[in-house]
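RECORD TYPE: inverse folding
INPUT: structure tokens
STRUCTURE:
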């Protein structure tokens, strides 16, 4: 079984950079700390540090161990804060993972109802690739994952998808590029520079299929896994870009771009993925109710 005291000594040494500084912080002798770390290394037949000159540097095993130790002691610190709080001061930490292609404006609108629960929740939000987020969901590092696709069938992870809603797709361009588009929508897309979502998104295949059905061949000049980055390139005039129609007005105002056209033939859906089939978490309930009855009404 993992010796958490030894792991803690290692963590402090790695954070402070030396056994001497760690001994001052822990109020222990350097010999005690060094001996305990040696026992930890012997138990797993690894080396955590290597000496380079007069400095200690982490080995590859040390870096990997530190990554896990950081997360463990961060969670332990959060738990201690919760346990020491008075009942009326306690908050529920609501840990949300967001797939990187979900537009940030959509994320904010989805999470806002949970943040408005009179201080009951403290939201911890992290953005990453969907599969990594689902891995953290499986081991309960996350309470919820927001994605543009439901739970993938090929993953051996227990999770349940709730569709929050869907909407059509809007096309935008900066004013200079918009002025050069002579035809009406959607004909103006033909041979126009276009920025599209990356290969891992559900929207990409739907968009390309619709363009083919309309006999349109834009010049695809960029593919982006991050919707904010795609909008930044579009705002600079690199090409037309797309966003969910439900935030079209906000995109125009924030990015100073023009709405070129909209279609409901291509839709983008958003999902809440959790480990509970019947959702009880107050944050998830607030998100799903608001999404279905307000945002995607």
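DESIGNED SEQUENCE:
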């Amino acid at each position: 079984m993992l010796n958490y005291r030894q792991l803690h000594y290692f963590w402090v040494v790695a954070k402070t950079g030396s056994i001497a500084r760690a001994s001052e912080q822990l109020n222990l002798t350097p010999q005690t700390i060094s001996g305990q770390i040696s026992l930890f290394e012997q138990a797993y037949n690894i080396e955590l540090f290597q000496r380079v000159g007069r400095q200690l540097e982490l080995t590859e095993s040390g870096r990997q161990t530190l990554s896990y130790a950081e997360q463990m002691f961060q969670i332990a610190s959060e738990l201690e804060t919760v346990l020491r709080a008075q009942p009326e001061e306690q908050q529920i930490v609501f840990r949300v993972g967001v797939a990187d292609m979900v537009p940030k404006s959509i994320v904010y609108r989805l999470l806002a109802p949970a943040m408005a629960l009179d201080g009951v929740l403290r939201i911890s939000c992290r953005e990453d690739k969907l599969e990594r987020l689902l891995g953290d969901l499986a081991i309960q590092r996350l309470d919820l994952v927001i994605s543009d696709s439901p739970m993938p069938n090929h993953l051996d992870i227990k999770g349940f998808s709730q569709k929050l809603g869907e909407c059509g797709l809007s096309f935008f361009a900066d004013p200079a590029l918009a002025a050069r588009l002579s035809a009406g929508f959607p004909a103006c897309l033909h041979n126009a520079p276009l920025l599209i979502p990356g290969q891992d998104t559900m929207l990409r295949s739907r968009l390309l299929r619709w363009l083919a059905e309309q006999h349109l061949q834009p010049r695809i000049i960029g593919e982006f896994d991050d919707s904010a980055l795609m909008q930044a390139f579009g705002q600079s005039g690199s090409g037309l870009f797309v966003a969910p129609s439900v935030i079209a007005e906000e995109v125009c105002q924030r990015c100073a771009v023009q709405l070129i056209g909209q279609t409901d033939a291509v839709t983008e859906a958003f999902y809440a993925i959790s480990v509970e089939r019947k959702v009880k978490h107050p944050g998830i309930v607030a998100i799903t109710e608001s999404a279905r009855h307000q945002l995607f009404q």
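NOTES: The domain at 4-84 is CATH 1.10.10.10 (Arc Repressor Mutant, subunit A).
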